[in-house]
Amino acid sequence: MNPEPYINLDRVIHEKGRLFIMSLLAAAPELSFTELRDTLAMTDGNLTTHIRTLQEAGYVAVTKSYQNNRSHTSCALTPAGRKAFADHINALEAIVRQNKPQ
Asked: pLDDT per residue over 51-60, tens digit each?
């Protein structure tokens, strides 16, 4: 067995909650905090913690604004985040190919 695909997994992305967030953001130009929270059925605190980790890694950009006198937070993948997510998916695919019964 080749250990390289396992080594190439991004530990920041691989955690289940962050993998879900990255997957959703990869499929949309941006999503609001509320959309992410409701889709993923996460608490505000849990989602905030995951977003902060992704933001610190440079994978997610967070934009805060006001709409109708209410704060609005949206998230989007950065170019580095898109590349990291693609690399992570490629590593997962390599693991599946390597372990798939013939």
From this structure: 999 999 999 9
Task: Compute the distance between CA of residue 93 and CA of residue 102 in angstroms, rounded to an integer.
Answer: 15
CA distance 8 to 55: 20
- List C-alpha distances in Å: 20 to 23, 47, 51, 66: 5, 11, 11, 26
Pick the CATH number of 4-95 from 3.40.50.20, 1.10.10.10, 3.40.190.10, 3.30.70.20: 1.10.10.10
pTM: 0.89
Of the candidates 42, 34, 27, 43, the one whose C-alpha atom is nearest the C-alpha of residue 77 is 27
Q: Quick one: tokens of 96?
A: 């599946």
